[in-house]
Amino acid sequence: MSLLVEEKLEKLVQGGTETLTKRDLTDALSMGPSIDGLLARAAHTVLLRTLGPGVCPTGIIEISNSCQKNCLYCGLRRGNSTLPRYHMTVEEIVSAIENGWRHGIRSFLLQSGELLGEAHAGSVVEVLRRVAGRWGDEAGMVLSIGELPRRTLEELGKAGAHRYLLRIETSEQELYNRIHPKDGLHRFGARLQCLADLGETGWQVGSGVLVGVPWQTVESLASDLLFLRDRDIDMCGFHPWIEHSDSPLAEYRDLAPEREARVRLTLRMTALLRLMMPDIDIYATTALQMLDPDGPEKGLLHGANVLMPGLTPSKYRLNYRLFDGRTAVPDDPGRVMAAMTARCSAIGRKLMPGEPGDPLHYIRRILSVRAGG
Fold it and tell me: What are phi and psi of 114, to 5 degrees?
């Protein structure tokens, strides 16, 4: 680790303002374990100073595992003929939201594979209308259903959704092309355009990066952090890559870091982005817990402030297999929330049921726009 990076991190801990350069980021990502304690301390200190100890529970409902895309790393890819497909009905989705609502969850993420037709978006619109009619603005609705035309994004926003997560996976076009098929459905430029459309149509915009895939370098990851900062995102989640045995990329697992290294890189990315963007929401992702039983706590201690209790009905959950190793969880949000409360309390953090989860970064951004800044 260069002395300059160490000095910058110490200044951030003390309340100073420092700009991390690409060289700083590359150094921090590539060094040995000696960097980890300082990174975590700096990120957690900045988080507590900016947002406080609160952790927002965002209930995740995986509404369909069907996908028209064929991403080379994903178990939901359309080429995976071994996966039983499902689509939750509108009634089932609303019931899952109600189940979480009874236990204090006010922020809900509807996630699915990428379906390009009107029918899927239409069913999501119907869900949003029912939620708005029943709970109004008290329910913070987050969508992660892939690239959509601008007009569809506008329709979803009018129906009551507030936030949208569209993962870029990597900001480097060459790597993007290596982990996606070369066809008209997987275009890097289209991904960028959809992110731009989300920002221009008033959404709270989230993205994310897949960490530890073959051919990825620390320079690439540093570029990802700068991309997220320059895009002025409001939310982010870093997912360590976990192989799916039925995906083409699994054949290249020997070119990827060991799983322990993927966890370490994911935590470092979390910490560095918190230092770069102190007021955004950062998710401690499900994949992190898959590789490390203490993943949620470690994510929180490295700057994350959102946990995702699962609300997908058990009869569907095991078939939402983005990666190998998906396990069942209690079909009881009360038990899940109690466990998350205990996890947070053990590290001096506080789960905040009742919070709709709007990122402070978005609130400040909107106020700045309205003020002409």
Answer: -90, 115
Confidence label for 1 from pLDDT (cuts 50, 70 and 90): very low
Rounded to 5 degrees, what are φ and ψ at 140?
-90, 110
Give the pLDDT band (50/70/90) at residue 373.
Answer: low
Distance, CA of 42 to CA of 150 (rounded, Å): 39
DSSP letter string over 249-284? GGGGGGGSPPHHHHHHHHHHHHHHHHHHSTTSEEE-
Q: Reduce the DSSP state of residue 236 to 3 states and report it.
A: strand
Q: Which two tokens stand for residue 141?
A: 């609705």
310 forms beta bridges with 60
Other C-beta atoms closer than 10 Å to the C-beta of 7 total 12
- The ranges assigned to domains in the chain are 53-370
In this prediction the pTM is 0.96
CATH assignment of 53-370, among 3.60.15.10, 3.20.20.70, 3.30.420.40, 3.40.50.2300: 3.20.20.70
CA 142/CA 239 separation, integer angstroms: 18
